[in-house]
Amino acid sequence: MSENAFLTVTDLRAGYGGARVLHGVSLAVGQGEICAILGPNGAGKTTLLRALSGMVRVRGDVRLDGADLSGRSPDTIARQGVAHVPEGRGTFMPLTVEENLRLGAFVRRDRRSLRGLRDLRGRRGGSAVDADLERVHTYFPVLKTRLKQVAGSLSGGEQQMLAIGRALMLRPRLLLLDEPSLGLAPMVTQELFRIVRAVNEEERTTVVVVEQNAHLALSIAQQAHVLESGRIVLSGSAEQIRADEQVAQSYLGYRV
Amino acid sequence: MAGFLQEIVEGLGAGAIYASLALALVLIYQFTGIVNFAQGELAMFSAYIAWQFMAAGLPFWLALVLTLAVSFVGGMLIERVVIRPVEGAPELTVVIVTVGLFIFVNAAAGWIWSFLIKDFPNPFPGGAIEAGGLSLGYSTLGIMAVVGVVMGLLYLLFQHTKVGLGMRAVASNPSSARLVGIRVGWTLALGWGLAATVGAVSGILVAPLLFLEPNMMGGVLIYAFAAATLGGFDSPVGAVVGGLVVGVAETLAGAYVGFIGSDLKVGVPLVIILFILLLRPQGLFGRAAVERA
Description:
- Chain B: GO terms for molecular function: transmembrane transporter activity.
- Chain B: It is found in: Cell membrane.
- Chain B: Belongs to the binding-protein-dependent transport system permease family. LivHM subfamily.
- Chain B: The chain crosses the membrane at residues 12-31, 51-73, 94-116, 136-158, 188-210, 216-233, 240-260, 266-285.
- The structure holds 2 protein chains of 2 kinds.
- By secondary structure, chain A is α/β, with parallel strands linked by helices.
- Chain A has a single domain, classed as P-loop containing nucleotide triphosphate hydrolases (Rossmann fold, 3-Layer(aba) Sandwich).
- Chain A has 11 helices and 10 strands.
- In chain A, the strands form 2 sheets. Chain A has a 6-stranded mixed beta sheet with strand order 6-7-8-3-9-10, with helices on both faces. A 4-stranded antiparallel beta sheet of chain A has the order 2-1-4-5, with helices on one face.
- In chain A, strand 4 and strand 5 form a beta hairpin.
- In chain A, helix 3 (97-104) runs parallel beside helix 7 (156-168).
- The radius of gyration of chain A is 18 Å and the shape is globular.
- In chain A, 46% of the residues are buried.
- Chain B has one domain (2-216).
- Chain B has helices at 2-32, 39-55, 60-83, 91-113, 138-160, 162-172, 174-179, 184-210, 217-231, 236-256, 261-264, 267-279, and strands at 128-131, 134-137.
- In chain B, strands 1-2 form a two-stranded antiparallel ribbon.
- In chain B, a hairpin with a 2-residue loop joins strand 1 (128-131) and strand 2.
- In chain B, helix 3 (60-83) crosses helix 8.
- The longest helix of chain B is centred in the N-terminal third of the chain and has 31 residues, at 2-32.
- The mean pLDDT of chain B is 90.
- The A-B interface holds A 53, 55, 73-75, 78-79, 83-84, 86, 90-95, 99, 102-104, 106-107, 111, 114-120, 150, 152-156, 159, 166, 170 and B 156, 159-162, 164-166, 168-169, 172-173, 175-184, 287, 289-293.
């Protein structure tokens, strides 16, 4: 795995101001894999994702398909095909659902379709971005019925779908998901994970998902890492992690 | 009755000017949450730049275009150099910085061009259209047309261009905008450049009416604040409607409320600000954020 890994993180250190949060994290994710990051609150899971997408300053090495991402700005990293669905979903509340989705494709060089909703001559459709809009609708049909609605008026579950849909508009090579289940009903969460799995299978998108709901995350991941106090304390395949007694006690809520 | 309508027309003319400066205020507020107290002074400085170009022999319209360009770049530079270091600082810090900018720009204009008033040519002809007992000055009509065009261009920019969509994204959620790949720093600078350009239009509209001098925008700024407060600091449309309402209210109060007259009418915008803040703090068109948890 590690020789030809798609994403390799080596000795990653990151923090806020003087407070170091990550103390040398190393991991590797193969192309097309789903990797789950588990761990208690405050372990540094969110910071790890923020470090990968350039939202916090890092030391160490981050490589995506060989290209060095460490120390790059978020917009450069987005241009490399990394889509980060942040904690709290990052919705552009006063904008419409369609505008939110189109913003996901902001860095793609498909100019005409990005001129707002239609270009000045009123032409519509036909571009790659419009095709991707359709593609997002097939994953999230509910968004299609809400295109002209202000995003702030969506329910929590719909906003999470919008956030993932926005990320897909980038046609990402790497998708970073931060706590997609947060604040959602179990049914909605299961649906979301089913869709993430479908995206991963159909488009071979590599996914790193941070999740409190370890059970659910392990159900779609091939491999997992347990983060504690800014260090990886346990790594393995999803089955191994699920079978681990200590993890079971701490995060899955039952004994094996 | 004709007299009353005439007052309204005059009020709309004055209001269009307040609206133009209020637009500049609202642009910056939307992107950065900063109330730029120096907006009027920047507009005044732009008017001086236009004057300088004309003093060098350039025709008005060429001077105008050059001034708008210089103002745009100047606005971006100010964001990069003066505002950027206090980005994210407490509001009071930012307010003090913009007040400092106010004083600096005012003094710089006085130092460069002296505090003596200068004549500024009016781009519009002097006459008026007489219609139904009303007299519509070309100048008033011209000002309203210019403000209308500026609004229309801003609307096209924000609603129908990629840059505009990016700017609205930054205004609504900067960190998320960063994640979709927008260069937020440059977008904020762009917002300041745009505001300075709109402000320059305002300054150039005001200068022929009030004579050009470093303190010329002081009063206008207060009216613009009233307009932006009335319309809602986050609504460009509100700023324009607010400007027109303030202009009309001021003119009517001056003409018909005996004790106000022309001396006290400066107080009208302050009364408007006070009542709006009490009754509807987000302004007429402002959003009380639509959000579901």
